[in-house]
Amino acid sequence: MSPERLKAMRERFAITATQHLTQGIETRLVDATTLPRTDVPASYDLVLVDAPCSGTGTLGRNPEIRHRLCPEDFAPQHQRQCALLRAALQLGQKRVLYSTCSLEPEENQHVVAQVISENPDWQQVSLRDQIESLREQNRLTPLGAEYLHRSLLPDGALQLMPAVFDENHIVSTDGFYLAMLERL
């Protein structure tokens, strides 16, 4: 992650998140592939891997992506994403959430499948229960929960397509992918 993106993420947290949602969130600008296990407290119950990607889920806001992206870009990106996810699995936490703003299987499902095949003590789990929990806590509207449930893939990952919909207000989102991995 670049310093600019980290700054933007911190600003979004400050604007949109409540204290309850941001309590215990730590952000760092480091090379995650070389982060020593001792640098991540055992008390952390989740590591987020927000992997660099092609950004195809943001084409609506960034149409120039279609002009700069080439098919040969995916192989090195895939390797980098696998390295980041592998490193996260070695940190000692029970859960890892893998995320991209890409809609490409090479950067999403293929990364998760490859890394899980190399790490038999990990499995992918469905995000269905997390979505339902957020709805029950009123952190998601019924419409939002329904949209997320419809966006679940058969393996339990979430592939959200770019969308704008209206029910008393307009909601707009980029496309992105989320997969939850748990240690067995």
UniProtKB/TrEMBL annotation:
The keyword Transferase applies. GO terms for molecular function: RNA binding; RNA methyltransferase activity. SUPFAM superfamilies: S-adenosyl-L-methionine-dependent methyltransferases (SSF53335). InterPro entries: MeTrfase_RsmB-F_NOP2_cat (IPR049560), MeTrfase_RsmB-F_NOP2_dom (IPR001678), RCMT (IPR023267), SAM-dependent_MTases_sf (IPR029063). Gene3D superfamilies: Vaccinia Virus protein VP39. GO terms for biological process: RNA methylation. Residues 1-184 form the SAM-dependent MTase RsmB/NOP-type domain. Keywords: Methyltransferase, RNA-binding, S-adenosyl-L-methionine, Transferase. The keyword Aminoacyl-tRNA synthetase does not apply. It holds the Pfam family Methyltr_RsmB-F. PANTHER family: NOP2 YEAST -RELATED NOL1/NOP2/FMU SUN DOMAIN-CONTAINING, RIBOSOMAL RNA SMALL SUBUNIT METHYLTRANSFERASE B-RELATED. This is SAM-dependent MTase RsmB/NOP-type domain-containing protein. It comes from mine drainage metagenome.
